[in-house]
Amino acid sequence: MQSVYAIIMAGGAGTRFWPASRRARPKQLLPLASDPKQSLIAATVRRLAPLIPKERVYVATGAHLLEATAAELPDVPRGQLLAEPVPRNTAPCIGWASRVIEARDPDALIAVFPSDHHIADEAAFRATLEKALETGAAAGYLTTIGITYVAGKKHLWNAGMFFFRAGVMRKAIEAHLPDLATGLAQIAEGGEVDRIFPTLPSVSIDHGVMEKASPLAVIKGDFGWSDVGGWQSAWELAPKDAQGNALPEGALAIEAQRNMVRDMRGADVGMRKKVIALVGVSDLVVVETDDALVVVPRDRSHEVRAVVDALKARGDESLI
Amino acid sequence: MQSVYAIIMAGGAGTRFWPASRRARPKQLLPLASDPKQSLIAATVRRLAPLIPKERVYVATGAHLLEATAAELPDVPRGQLLAEPVPRNTAPCIGWASRVIEARDPDALIAVFPSDHHIADEAAFRATLEKALETGAAAGYLTTIGITYVAGKKHLWNAGMFFFRAGVMRKAIEAHLPDLATGLAQIAEGGEVDRIFPTLPSVSIDHGVMEKASPLAVIKGDFGWSDVGGWQSAWELAPKDAQGNALPEGALAIEAQRNMVRDMRGADVGMRKKVIALVGVSDLVVVETDDALVVVPRDRSHEVRAVVDALKARGDESLI
User: Fold this and answer.
1) CB B27, CB B14: distance < 8 Å
2) Which residues of chain A lie closer than 8 angstroms to B310, CB-CB?
3) Which residues 6+ apart lie within 8 Å of A49 measured at CB?
4) Between chains, do B291 and A275 touch, taking CB under 8 Å as contact?
5) Which has the least CB within 10 A, A134, A177, B281, B299?
6) Rounded to two decimals, what is the model's pTM?
7) pLDDT tens for residues A105-154?
8) Residue ranges of the alpha helices (H) in B49-121?
9) What is the pLDDT of residue A154?
10) Distance from CA of A187 to the nearest CA of B (A)
């Protein structure tokens, strides 16, 4: 089999994890799943390592996130971090990174992953990847993984993972997104990324390529996948005490059940000892950072967006 | 009328306002009533000023609280802060301070006040004091104020305020607490406070003197008195928004009702901007300090004592 390369898509923004997530520190850079010390993107690269070594891992991120992303992935060669000057959705992202990899290795097999998901059963995940690469991508198909629904199993869920030969994706973009193909060719021929990338059409790989390509290989997968969609999901993934509380070290929960507490203060003040105590409350999310504290019921935690909106409305840009 | 002197009793400890209150920073040193910038003890001295100038205000506190108390009362002459080496309840406290005042002014009229209460109607309060001093203390009675109960008004509530001529209290202690009288006389004759004070009997002025003295003058008072007994009480006294939330400046409450939020971080980090946001929660108390954060339902806020007990149990003395 040809060498396998990974493209990690790490341009994500979003406000569902405010106040932990910010424009300059989006979800993938935060430790939001089961390991309170490992960011989602670091876990993404780690779990691929037995199949795809860091020497063949490429990461596409926003220019404003380049330094923070590099800091999370110290072992990924710096030249393999691709900085998008502006966000243009997933088709330009995947198309550009694929061309960079194809220039290095024309026979490359490429696997694309989101940077901000969680996978519980990593062995099963890697077995699925191998199948997707061998029976799908290596055979010339644009390939995706369909997550089997636990309830009913009548649907397959697209988890944003794609597998293909570099040349197959290039040709699919030429066929279905000719404007994108033209721009990517200009970049491949030495055109300036900062000038050309903003002119690319903003379109998703799903809508722009995968929905139009036929045949498409879909490999079923069942490996405890989660898109870590919000604090509720983070609570479900986190280690919990006997009362269902997910707490930082040293926190106290007295007659308190099923709460999620995160102390995400930065290293400058994070080294200061601070005790967080919950008494008689249940099903709350409490998140503390250096400059913000939020308290919200767990089942309403997606509403932290309203706080971001309110901060925007009053011009509090530094907190967003 | 003779000159009026005040004794402010400021030895209080207690855990009902944890994490804001600590051994080294008890309730009276905190801004827990309607003015978020004035400590209860500073408010106590301020509201007396039209009747009793600071030159005649004495403050009895614990030795370990002397510096912090002085910092809250910069205009009270330092020599009028009396440091009790150990707590010995209110009779030794009042007895000692009264002897100090009597030595300065044998005709002194003395008014004793707790340092950690709130009074809403200060004009009515001062009118009651004048009556207590003129018709009670000046006439030779041990005098107290009976707070009229709003509901039913069948009881009078002893609010810990006492009024007397210096010599009358000295003689009452000689009559009812001879051991205490002996110790106080030794101190008055130049005995070392640090040696003698710990030998004094620990007894309250109510039990040791007032209950035994007869006749006793009781002046009825109705001036919006509160002993600020806990966070519930502090919430009742605090300015609130239209949804009943008592919030620090800049805090956000979205679909949140009747919450109490206090940001009591110290000046070192308190100058850092921090937004506290509540979303979809009601009737909570949220208190943040430099080294602790507590979240508790308002009607269970007295249970923060359990946190203090838990911290003690695990040896976390610095947080108590």
Assistant:
1) yes
2) 252, 254, 277
3) none
4) yes
5) B299
6) 0.90
7) 999 999 999 999 999 999 999 999 999 999 999 999 999 999 888 655 56
8) 66-72, 90-104
9) 64
10) 44
